[in-house]
Automatic annotation (TrEMBL):
Pfam families: DUF5687 (PF18940)
Protein name in UniProt: ABC-2 type transport system permease protein
Coiled coil: none
Presence of the UniProt keyword Membrane in the record: yes
TM annotation in the entry: 24-49, 61-83, 104-132, 138-158, 165-182, 206-223, 278-295, 301-318, 350-370, 376-399, 420-440, 446-466
Keywords linked to the UniProt accession: Membrane, Transmembrane, Transmembrane helix
InterPro entries on file: DUF5687 (IPR043742)
Amino acid sequence: MLLLNLIKHRIQESVRAKVFSKNVAIAFVMVFLFLYFATIFIFLGFNLIDILRSVYPETPVLSSYFTVIIYAYFSEIMVRYFLMDIPAVKFQRYILHPFKRGQLVNSVLISSVFDLFYVFPLMVFIPFIYQYDFANKWIIWVFLLLLSTGNHFLALYLKKKGGSNPLIGLILLLITASVIYLDSAKILPITPTIAEFFTNGIENPWQFLAAGIYPVITYLLSYKWMVNHAYLDELSVKRKTEDKITSNLSFGKKYGKIGQLMELETRLILRNKRTKQTFLMSFFFLFYGLIFYANDAYQNQQWMLVFVAIFITSLFAMQHLQFTWSLESSYFDHILTNPISFSEYMEAKFRLIAVYCGFLTLLSMGYAFLDPKYAYQHLCAYIFAMGVLVPLFLYLSSFNKKKIDLGKSASFNFQGQSGHHYLALIPALVGPSILYWIISLLSSPLVGWLTLGFLGLIGISLRKVFYQAIGKRLEKVKYNMTIGFKEN
């Protein structure tokens, strides 16, 4: 009964969310994104046999399929850690009600299983088994569900235990990348071992059911942790501990007023769930280039690689700066009363974003091992983003009058957003690609990349002019923004 009520409350919470009732555009975007990804996964499922035969021509289809499945489930742990939110109906709300603590935790954990992470893999698996006939399909389907359920509870445990610690996210990234690299470089016989395991499993399917131990263990880990920490006072202590960690930051005093503003911005990013998760997700999207750089079909479409390079090196800047003032809406009045100009605020944000995105760009230089040209491409994309896109998104942020709750997760959270945020991404990502395409036709691809970098350098040198212009606009609309932040 308690479980059914929690599931009912979770559905009601989603349906009645203010962001969907007040903004039809967000609801439309959500439906569009679901249909878009559903179409991709279904199409992939129906064409998976041909894809596997072209990628692994010397390997049986079933063996190569199960190899890809294991890669996907390794990656799923990382994806769930970055994107999955702690169960939507927080058990803290029910602590004071007459429920047994263990019963409450059990119900919360079980209700958290119902999410879209289970739907999309089925959209690939069902069309595949419909076309490719092999024995004991049902037992393999159960095996994949058990793996996914185990990943769900493992990611939940890591997220609860580590509190979205960046180190855990980086470790998951390194483990996933290492497994893929060691297998592709044939240093460890991962693929043959997996193929043999599944081949034997088809003949003796009951060995797959041994995978049921995995979700049981991860479930018990999550259960034990939540039972031992389901106290409001302990959760508040955890919050104070996080604040104490970030309060030890003191690098800003060495660099004057701008440095102190950078320090405050760093605390805002690392202390709050939404900004911290956005930052961590930018590391996950470093692997986005593998989709394009490892595919020869895109090597003749260099204009698309401009989009990829900007996406990899500067995604965090675009996501964060769009909501520059909405993220600070809770104390926007305090900003207005401080003897600090908007230009100084924007200069501090620019320098901090330049450091963060510069670090991401440095990490992305690993693609140079695939082809040295990716090094200068990412560098040019980074410079272009800092000089052109950063002022653009700072300007667009002045149109946002919606408050954002920093305590909520960033994944599938559309608070403070509207249709123009998505429209703004189109020229920011497509515009440089079109410009590069025109210049490369008139000259050469190298000149196209250098032109983007040169435009970025011009933008960086003129940034104070841009900030003054944006500051004048903010002076005109600051009171309207204050009213908007208080209404939401």
